[in-house]
Hints:
Layout: E1 5-6, E2 14-15, H1 18-37, E3 55-60, E4 63-69, E5 79-83, E6 86-93, E7 112-119, E8 130-134, E9 137-143, E10 161-162, E11 168-169
Antiparallel strand pairs: 1-2, 3-4, 4-9, 5-6, 6-7, 8-9, 10-11
Amino acid sequence: xxxxxxxxxxxxxxxxxxxxxxxxxxxxxxxxxxxxxxxxxxxxxxxxxxxxxxxxxxxxxxxxxxxxxxxxxxxxxxxxxxxxxxxxxxxxxxxxxxxxxxxxxxxxxxxxxxxxxxxxxxxxxxxxxxxxxxxxxxxxxxxxxxxxxxxxxxxxxxxxxxxxxxxxxxxxx
Length: 173
């Protein structure tokens, strides 16, 4: 297949990639929604008012750990619940009361509510979950139940039977 070369005045010449076009279209649709919903200020690329805390999860010593970075969140504004196999972390980072009186020149800190959901392993005893909040980090530990060990199953083989005609037929299981 032959590459199509297009001129981009801000970059060097490069092969045309349809995924670049799709990414640009995705960004433009995001901008339209931001303007329509009032979540972006004029000239801003990023969304204001939409905030999701950064999360990491890992397993260690038979436990699943979920950590959420929650700077500026009051622990009283956190809600951690578990239903069936879903762990839900909800909370809110509240802004200052006199925000309207300030004349901002630049603003990146986002305030607002958030909710994150995680599927946890089957068979977890909900009473064994623990949550701790320190230095703006929420850490939840989930004990992972032991899974049944793999068991080898012996496969039996049978000799095929010969018919009077000399053909061989395998016995149906």
